[in-house]
Amino acid sequence: MRRGRRRCRRAADRLDPRSGCFNAGPDGSIGGPLSPTQRTQLESSLSALDAAIAQVQSRQVANGLKQQQVDQVTDQLQSRSDFLETFVADIEDVNIAEAITRLQNDQTALEASYRAFSSIADLSLVRFI
Questions:
Q1: d(CA 102, CA 94)
Q2: I need a labelling partner for 111 at 20 to 30 A (CA). Which of 5, 15, 30, 96 fits?
Q3: Which molecular function GO terms apply here (predicted)?
Q4: pTM of the predicted structure, to 2 decimals
């Protein structure tokens, strides 16, 4: 008997007809008008169910927010992956002749900028006075 009472403390057991707790209440099974004890037991069970539903809803909200974060991170990682694949493909598929020509043009432009900077650096007011 003690075991049955201990098991019947959980709201889920009190509401499950298979557990034996539903019909083993202090006033027996619910078949006609409710006794005050039965009413109290049902009200307390409803309160427990309301609290459980609120907790489940809270967990669903938290789960939804985490899923949204996962989706955002997945999208960001996919974008990075696409960018890096394009970047690597541009390097691997380079035309050697075109790359050499671009390098020579860049070297020529760099040397010209060095000469221009050097001639500007040589200017001073002393030369003109």
A1: 12
A2: 96
A3: structural molecule activity
A4: 0.45
d(CA 102, CA 96): 10
State the Cα–Cα distance between residues 66 and 64, nearest whole angstrom. Answer: 5
* Token pair recorded at residue 18: 């298979």
- Digit-coded pLDDT (tens) for 24-61: 555 556 667 777 887 888 888 888 899 999 999 999 99
Cβ-Cβ contacts under 8 Å for 16 (sequence gap 6 or more) = 22
CA atoms within 13 A on the CB side of 68: 6
Kindly state the DSSP code that residue 21 receives in the 8-state scheme. Answer: T
What type of residue is 57?
A: Q
Tens-place pLDDT, residues 84-122: 999 999 888 888 898 899 999 999 999 999 999 888 877
